[in-house]
Write a structure and sequence with these properties.
The protein is α+β, with helices and mostly antiparallel strands and 96 residues long. The protein has one domain. Helices cover 22% and strands 35% of the residues. The protein is built from two helices and five strands, in the order E-E-E-E-E-H-H. It has a five-stranded antiparallel beta sheet with strand order 1-2-3-4-5.
């Protein structure tokens, strides 16, 4: 069985256009990688959603995120613990 990496929250991030904190994170340990959806909160209060993934050693990967049907189900379960992120994704899908 693949073990999910536990990352502390909040934790800082830095992008070319601003800095802030990852405040919520839904993640699922899949067979090949750990697909992750993050709620980024910038220093000015703006929020964004990042779709990304980590390898099984816990290293952030800079490639496109691809998820299988099983991983979608795992991420859906993980979203139960991320109320703000879940609400924004509901808005994105037109489900709110």
């Amino acid at each position: 069985m693949i073990k999910k990496t536990n990352r502390r929250l909040p934790r800082p991030f830095s992008l070319h256009w601003g800095d802030g904190y990852i405040v919520e994170e839904a993640t699922y340990a899949g067979e090949h990688h750990e697909p992750t959806v993050q709620l980024l909160e910038f220093e000015d209060g703006a929020v964004s959603i990042r779709f990304c993934y980590y390898d099984h050693a816990g290293r952030f990967q800079r490639s496109p995120l691809m998820v299988s049907a099983d991983e979608v189900a795992g991420l859906r379960d993980a979203l139960k613990n991320t109320p703000r992120l879940k609400a924004l994704l509901g808005d994105l899908a037109g489900c709110s």
